[in-house]
Amino acid sequence: MHFHDDALFPELQDKLVITAAPYGPEWELDDFREDLPLTMEQHVQQAVDCYEAGATVLHIHVREEDGHGSKRLSKFNELLSGLREAVPDMILQVGGSISFAPEGDGADAKWLSDDTRHMLAELDPKPDQVTIAINTSQMNIMELMTEDDIAGTSLARPELYDTYREMTVPAGPEWVEEHLRRLQANGIQPHFQLSSIPQLETVERLIRRGKYTGPLNLTWVGIGGGFDGPNPYNIMNFIQRVPDGACLTLETLMRSVAPVNAMAIALGLHGRCGNEDTIWGAKGEKMTSVQQIKQLVRLSEELGREVADGKEARDIYHIGEWYADADETLAKVGFAPNRQPGQVGFTHHA
Question: Does domain 14-333 have CATH number 3.10.310.10?
C-alpha cells in the first residue's frame, strides 16, 4: 500500500469498517457470562447490539445449548436465517474454522475435516463471506497470553491450556484451491485470514493463476504462536506488501487489541474487536464486545474519520462483485500484471 502525503487525512480515507467477533468460541460461558450468548435469541440480540454500536461486519460462530461451540451446519443455518432478518445490512462473515473449541476437558481443539469445512459453501441462507486460512501452520493462541489474561478463566486449566497451545490450522494447497472454487461457485466472498507475508504471497500466486477472481479482503492476524505477533514492524511490513486495491483489517488478541485498532484507524485501515479477540479492557477489567466497538467508534470520531454504515461497508468490501479472469483481478486489486510471452523487465499497468 502506498501512503501519499495526505494519506493520513481522515477525510481522504475510506470510512472505518468495524468487524465484531462477539461469540468467543474459545471461552466457556462462566468466563464472561455477561457477554457470551447461549440461546439462539441471545446470539441474534448480540448481533443487533453490535450493529447498533457501530459494527458492520459480523464474524460468526455459534454455541450449542450445552455451551460448547457448535460444529453443526444446521445451527449456522438457523443463526444466519435469524441474522438476515434482524440485521439485514450487516456483512455476515462465517468463521472458516467453524468451531475449534474442544468438546470436553482435555479434548483436542481441532478444526473440522476438509470435507466438512467445504460444506460452508452450502450454507442456507448463504453468508456474504467465509474466512479462509492459507498454508497449514501452528495456531498456538496461548503463546502471547499473560497470566493476567487467563487468570480465573477456563484457559487456566492445564488440559485446555495445553490443547490450545498445540492447535494447528489445516490449510494445504489442494484444500485451499477447492474451497475457493466452491465459495466462488456459490457467490460467497472469501475473506483471507493471513498470519504473515508468506501467506500473502501465496494468495497473490492463487490470483495470478486464476484460482481466485474477485475483490481482495484481507485480515492480518497478529496472534503469535505461528502467526505474526503484534509488533508494529510486522504490521507495517505486511501493509507495505498489500496491494492498493485490497481492503485490510488488523486483528490481534487480548490487551493488544485496542492499540492495534488505534493504529488501524489512524492509518486508514479497518478494525476488529469482540470477545473472540479479548475480554479485557484496562488491566483486570472485563470489557464487552459492544463496549469495545463503542471505544473504536469514539477513537475514530476523535480522529475525524467517519464510521461506515452497513451499505457503505458493503461497497468498501465490494460484496457481490466478481472479475472475469486473472488479468482483471490483478488490475482491480492492484498487483502488477502477469508477464506476457516475450515481455522483459518489470511489469506494470500502463
Answer: no
